Amino acid sequence: MLGSGPVAIIFASMGMFDLYEPYPVIGCPYCGTQLAEWQGKDGPCALFFWRQGMVAPLRHQVDEECRLPTSKMEQFRLPMKFRFYSRDIKCRFCPVYAVGQTKDQMWVSTTFFLLSDAPYHEMVDLNEDRSLSPHLWRRQ
Ligand SMILES: [Zn+2]
C-alpha cells in the first residue's frame, strides 16, 4: 500500500463493509449472548466502526498505515436507514439482522429482527410502548 495515497486506499477498501455497535449493547432475549459485533454494507463500506448515539464513525478499523486522518473520517455519515447483520449468532432465535435509523445524521434507534416463529418473550413482545428505549424488536 506504500505510495498509493489516501484516495487509492479508500477506493481499495470499497466493497467491504462497516462494523456496527447498537448501544447500549443488548443480549439475545433467548440465550443471553451479548450482541456486540455486527457488519453491514449500507454505510460507506470502509471498515468504519459505528456506535449508536454518534454522528460520525468512532474509529477506522484498519491497520495504522491505511487509517484515514480523524478529520477525514469524521466527515462520513450513515444513511437514514441501514441494515446490518449479527456475527454473534449462538441460538436459533438470536436476531438475524437489525435496522438502524438516523435522525439529524445521528444513529438514534435500532430495530432487531427475529425469526417469525421465535416464541413469545416479554422483551420482544411488550416493547412497542417503550418509546424511550433506543432498541425495538420485530418479527420478520
Ligand atoms: Zn440467542
Task: List descriptors.
140 residues; 8 strands; binds zinc ion; 8-stranded mixed sheet; alpha+beta
Fraction of residues in helices? 10-25%
Q: Please give the radius of gyration in angstroms.
A: 16 Å
Side by side, the strands of the main sheet go 4-3-1-2-5-6-7-8
> What percent of residues are in strands?
25-35%
| Global structural class | alpha+beta
| Major sheet size, sense and barrel closure | 8 strands, mixed
Could you give the count of β-strands?
Answer: 8
* Coarse shape: elongated
Question: What does the model show?
Answer:
The radius of gyration is 16 Å and the shape is elongated. It has one domain. Strand 7, helix 3 (122-125) and strand 8 form a beta-alpha-beta unit. The mean pLDDT is 88. An 8-stranded mixed beta sheet has the order 4-3-1-2-5-6-7-8. The protein has 3 helices and 8 strands. The chain is α+β, with helices and mostly antiparallel strands. It binds zinc ion. Zinc ion (ZN) is lined by residues 28, 30-31, 33, 90-91, 93-94. Zinc ion binds at residues 28, 30-31, 33, 90-91, 93-94.
In short:
The protein is an alpha+beta fold and about 140 residues long. It has one domain. It has helices at about 5-15, 70-75, 120-125, and strands at about 20, 40, 50, 60, 80-85, 95-105, 105-115, 135-140.
Helices and strands in order, then pairings?
Layout: H1 5-13, E1 18-21, E2 38-40, E3 48-51, E4 59-60, H2 70-73, E5 81-86, E6 97-103, E7 106-114, H3 122-125, E8 135-139
Parallel strand pairs: 1-3, 7-8
Antiparallel strand pairs: 1-2, 2-5, 3-4, 5-6, 6-7
This protein binds zinc ion (ZN).
